[in-house]
Amino acid sequence: MGMRAGPLIERLGAVDAVVFDTDGVLIDSARLHAAAWKETFDAYLREHPPRDPAQRRPFDTGDYRRHVDGKSRLDGAVAFLASRKIHVPAGTPEDPPGSATAGAIAARKEQLFAALLRERGVETWPGTVRLLRALEAEGVPHAAVSASRHARDLLAEAGLLGLLHVVVDGVEAARLGLPGKPDPALFLTAAARLGVPAAAAAVAEDALAGVEAGRRGGFGLVIGVDRTEDPGTAAELLAHGADMTVTDLSQLLSAPEEAPEEESEGNSEE
Question: What is the pTM (predicted TM-score) of this model?
Fold first, then answer.
């Protein structure tokens, strides 16, 4: 790894490539995934209440972060159900909704997510675009990964697809038989396609399973992205393997763009 002087903070300037998670890091789609999971799981818990009343509480943001975020649909469904001591056959994500499998639950979530996406669309953050352009200007190759089969379309809709050198999405992961996070396979595949060893690359990830995957994969820098308002999230990201945390990708720039100063009367300091 060679240090480069430029618009990147020192720690990011020391790596030779960056691999980004997609949902919640590059684009603001994690909220749609969380909403679709909540509707799916709350309906399931009402229809199939666990014996233990304590396990009947609604799905919440803590459940999303601990059991679902960053994982494939099937893995997320299995993990959440197990956390509530509900055991059903895994099945596949192609099982029809209503079947008695975790795959059917995942399929129902997929339907709801697609409906929310049509209704609300997807956005990105200005800091994301600024960082991707800075990486391009500095000659630092960068990739996006996602367990979602929608990732490539979402990145295109957000205007980011042309700013990325490599995308490894859920479609590609299924084709290659890659295991989901916290296994590092998605990140390692992206780094290999960028032509950079993991030890010389950085990972930027908002999910606990994702930062754990970055640490397991031996990446030289694991950046936790905390876009929540929960004061405990950053500590959780660090505990799962992040080397540092940011609340916006613009914080990885050494000189973030500043908003123009507004003129005011009688308020200047002497």
Answer: 0.80
